[in-house]
Amino acid sequence: MLYISPSLEEQRERLAPQPDKPPLAPYQQDDTSFWPEGIACALRAPQAGINASVRAMQDNAGASSGPVYGINMACLAPGEDPLEMQANRIFLFDKHGINLSQAFQAVTVPSAIEHNLALATFWQNGADEVSAPRFNAGDGNIAGAGKTASGLSMLMGAANILLKDHIKDFDDCIVAPFIRAMFRWNMQWNPREDIKGDFEVVASGSQSMIAKEVRAQQVPALISYMGIPAFAPFIRAEKLLEVALEQTDLPAERILRSEEEARQYEEQQMRAQAQAQAQAHTEALMEQLQRQGMTPEQIQRQMVLLLAQLAQVADGGQPGAPSLPPGEPQPGGAPRQGVGA
After folding, report:
1. Are 266 and 309 in contact (CB under 8 A)?
2. Among 65, 156, 210, 268, which one is most buried in terms of CB atoms within 10 A?
3. CA 202 to chain centre
4. pLDDT tens, per residue, the chain with 341 residues
5. CA 70, CA 220: separation in Å to the nearest integer?
6. Which of 301, 291, 288 has the alpha carbon at shortest distance from 328?
7. With contact defined as beta carbons under 8 Å apart, do 223 and 236 qualify?
8. Are the C-beta atoms of residues 197 and 30 closer than 8 Å to each other?
9. Please, are residues 116 and 57 in contact by the beta-carbon 8 Å criterion?
């Protein structure tokens, strides 16, 4: 008898990493049964209610689409068939001394479509409490707070509370067993001795989601503290903005400016504001000089003197009163007399 020992590679393929039990992600754990409950089982009652409501609405819509006729067969003339109902139908009666209501009546069935629609909406809301809400899948037909962007964001944040249990089950039944099997395989077959040791696999998907939701609610509160004068000096606005962007999963390094860029931006804004104020002041002064009756040449010389005075102030000198040639009117005053007048 000849026995051929498998090679090391064959042994590794046979002993591929396998979890302790078949991977099964339950939708909802059932403490009274070995098997968990799936989404079909959890939604059986809401789905049955929706089906019954829609079926009743359709039946009522068909019954209330037209009147129900009642005909007294004893009052019909010979040869009249009441089952032949059509538009502009004429019935012949051969009984005398009776009212038409005694021989023929049309009863209108009341419509209950609105009632059945409200009942179907009730069961749809019940299904949202069991499974993921409809607006998580992009359904925009939402009333109340969901009509606004901030309200919809709050609703979606609250819906994540229902999802954390499902994520926890997925971590415990899929992620952790798979990583644990990979770890055990590497501890046995990996040739690197420096990676081997005792480890415990912890899947933190649901914990990370909850922590992120908590931080997302705390950041706006911290931003509101910037408006309090007593707290603003102790809060680093740029770091707080980085934390706020991290909660949105956006690349903060591509959005935020560096300290040098922020300083240059502030200086640029200050220069633009100063230029706007100077332009407004110049236009107001020119309008005032025009109202005083000065000629365009006099206004131009006055503006040149004003610009020279502003340049002297910018250079650190003492501002001097602009002087005009003799006989030219001063802004807001009488004509200036020359020396020796």
Report:
1. no
2. 210
3. 31
4. 444 445 555 555 555 555 556 667 777 777 787 777 788 888 899 999 999 999 999 999 998 988 888 888 888 888 888 878 777 777 788 777 777 788 888 888 899 999 999 999 899 888 877 777 666 665 656 655 555 656 656 666 666 666 777 777 788 888 888 888 888 888 888 888 888 888 888 877 766 766 776 777 777 777 888 888 888 888 888 888 887 777 777 777 777 788 888 888 888 889 888 888 878 888 888 888 788 888 888 878 877 887 777 677 656 544 444 444 444 444 444 444 433 33
5. 69
6. 301
7. no
8. no
9. yes
> Residue 203's CB: how many other CB atoms inside 10 A?
20
Interior angle at CA 78, CA 73 and CA 83, nearest 5: 50
Tokens of 131: 């499974």
Q: Which two tokens stand for residue 243?
A: 């934390």
Q: Collapsing DSSP states into helix, strand and coil, what is residue 294?
A: coil
219: alpha, beta or left? (left if phi > 0; alpha if psi -120 to 50): alpha
Count of CB atoms situated within 10 Å of the CB of 206? 19
